[in-house]
């Protein structure tokens, strides 16, 4: 009888620690009409003043569009209006962007973060990833800001220079007020975030990669994986009262999904 009870307990524990991946329902999709042939948007962030999405287009600049149609509203080209990211090779290594509440933008590259002021038209270094050891290189594809918590989140991956084998996958934190490093954690399960979004309303950190949405703990844990139907190359994410909006870089689209119910259970 004791063995039988223990077996039942083990089954119950397994059920609580491994749940099937959820699926989110599509409620809408728009084509990003401002993209030209060969271009791809690699990040998205919402302007807190206008509510308009801005996209990072490598080699081109930062593009503001209509949230409902995807039509171009305005843009700031790399190398113009003080947007000097990676001088000498403007914008080609840029990977993501985020907004501060004062309207300034944070633009990341594979190894650094810059603070761009569109009013003063100035770009200043903001934060820097810890330098990778010899023979390795960092690649950061995502960042987001929790201004209330004074945190910038980034998700760098370290690869071997030869062979491109992944060495480390981390979630790192910087002070939003100063850009100084304040902590890091290993990302669970090799989840390579291509987009991050801090939802201030729910106090949740969302991440996307390929066709998957997940919730990330500050300890690097990954829970509540959700399949994103029709998305193959997720490059950015944001959420609001209308749902979760995912940028598919390959398709040049923003797809809106119903927000999944997060239960906090990890997915193996």
Please write out the topology.
Blueprint: H1 2-17, E1 22-24, E2 26-31, E3 43-46, E4 53-57, E5 61-65, E6 72-77, E7 94-99, E8 105-109, E9 112-117, E10 122-128, E11 136-146, E12 151-160, E13 166-175, E14 181-186, E15 195-199, E16 204-209, E17 212-216, E18 222-228, E19 234-240, E20 243-248, E21 253-257
Parallel strand pairs: 1-18
Antiparallel strand pairs: 2-21, 3-4, 4-5, 5-6, 7-8, 8-9, 9-10, 11-12, 12-13, 13-14, 15-16, 16-17, 17-18, 19-20, 20-21
Distance between the termini: 30 Å
The CATH superfamily is: TolB, C-terminal domain
The average pLDDT score comes to 86
Helix content: under 10%
What is the total tally of β strands? 21
Would you tell me the structural class of the helices and strands? mainly beta
* Poorly predicted spans: 1-20
Which architecture name does CATH use? 6 Propeller
Number of domain units: 1
Please compute the radius of gyration using only Cα atoms: 19 Å
User: Which CATH class applies here?
Assistant: Mainly Beta
The helix-strand sequence is HEEEEEEEEEEEEEEEEEEEEE
Largest sheet: 5 strands, mixed
The main sheet orders its strands as 1-18-17-16-15
The CATH topology name reads: Neuraminidase
């Amino acid at each position: 009888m004791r063995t039988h009870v223990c077996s039942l307990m083990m089954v119950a524990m397994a059920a609580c620690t491994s749940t099937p991946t959820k699926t989110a329902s599509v409620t809408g999709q728009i084509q990003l009409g401002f993209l030209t042939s060969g271009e791809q948007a690699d990040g998205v962030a919402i302007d807190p003043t206008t509510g308009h999405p801005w996209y990072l287009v490598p080699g081109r600049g930062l593009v503001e569009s209509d949230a409902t149609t995807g039509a171009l509203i305005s843009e700031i080209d790399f190398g113009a209006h003080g947007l000097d990211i990676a001088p000498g090779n403007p914008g080609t290594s840029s990977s993501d962007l985020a907004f501060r509440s004062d309207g300034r933008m944070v633009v990341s590259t594979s190894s650094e973060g810059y603070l761009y002021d569109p009013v003063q038209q100035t770009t200043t270094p903001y934060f820097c990833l810890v330098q990778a050891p010899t023979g390795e290189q960092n690649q950061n594809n995502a960042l987001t800001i929790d201004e209330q918590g004074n945190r910038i989140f980034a998700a760098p991956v370290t690869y071997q220079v030869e062979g491109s084998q992944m060495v480390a996958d981390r979630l790192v934190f910087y002070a939003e007020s100063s850009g100084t490093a304040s902590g890091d954690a290993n990302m669970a399960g090799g989840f390579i975030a291509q987009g991050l979004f801090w939802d201030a309303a729910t106090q949740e950190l969302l991440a996307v990669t390929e066709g998957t949405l997940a919730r990330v703990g500050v300890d690097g844990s990954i829970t509540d994986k959700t399949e994103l139907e029709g998305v193959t190359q997720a490059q950015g994410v944001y959420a609001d009262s209308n749902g979760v909006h995912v940028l598919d870089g390959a398709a040049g689209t923003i797809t809106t999904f119903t927000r999944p119910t997060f239960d906090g259970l990890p997915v193996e």
